[in-house]
Amino acid sequence: MIMVSSCLLGFDCKYNGENNENEQVLQLFERMQLIPVCPESLAELPTPRPPAEIQGGDGSDVLAGEAKVVDKQNRDLTSEFIEGAYQALQQARANGANLAILKARSPSCANKQIYAGKFNGELKEGLGVTAALFEKNGIQVYSEEEINEVLKKI
Ligand code: SF4
Fold first, then answer.
1. Which ligand 1 atom sits closest to the C-alpha of 37?
2. Residue with the nearest Cα to atom 5 of ligand 1?
3. Mean pLDDT for the chain?
4. Disulfide-capable partner of 88 in 39, 46, 95, 145 (CB 3.0 to 4.6 Å)?
5. pLDDT of residue 93
6. Which pLDDT score, from 0 to 100, does residue 29 have?
7. Which atom of ligand 1 is found nearest the CA of 84?
8. pLDDT single digits (tens) 18-60
9. Are the beta carbons of 37 and 6 closer than 8 angstroms?
């Protein structure tokens, strides 16, 4: 079983009410069962919603209580992002997933780079909150930009 960011499968759960449908990810459906997951929706954040970024570190630091998630209106959404991550982990465990394909550069889902917390498009190295929790719990996280890596594993 592979957990997949819902927005990559065409669900309109992205912050702006749209999706990030990805043809390569959809094609994986022909080979195996994919479980859609959107941590921000699981935390009952509305869609559309203002964009959010991590300030003071990355998702691992958020889980450690050393960084926070804020939206563009400067509202602190740290607890919501942590809640969404734990709910996503619960779903992954319930489905026996040990692999995930999550959306690149998202403050929840990113596995390599996130926006730097300045809302100016700047990027920094780091994980999103859910990706960090998944990796901490033995679920390998890839992005939609690394499908070829995933194909080697299945
Ligand atoms: S939280 Fe993840 S699954 Fe949900 S919209 Fe953002 S990138 Fe997509």
1. 3
2. 14
3. 97
4. 39
5. 98
6. 81
7. 1
8. 999 999 999 998 888 999 999 999 999 999 999 999 999 999 9
9. yes
For the chain, give the secondary structure using H, E and C.
Answer: CEEEEHHHHCCCCCCCCCCCCCHHHHHHCCCCCEEEECHHHHCCCCCCCCCEEEECCCHHHHHCCCCEEEECCCCECHHHHHHHHHHHHHHHHHCCCCEEEECCECCCCCCCEEECCCCCCCEEECCCHHHHHHHHCCCEEEEHHHHHHHHHHC
Q: What is the pTM of this model?
A: 0.97
Around ligand 1, the residues with Cβ closer than 6 Å are 5-7, 13-14, 38-40, 103, 106, 108-109
**Cα 31 to ligand 1 centre (Å):** 23
Residue pair 22/7 in contact (Cβ under 8 Å)? The answer is no
Ligand 1: nearest atom to the Cα of 41: 4
Which tokens in the block code for residue 53?
């970024």
Query: What is the number of residues in the chain?
Result: 154
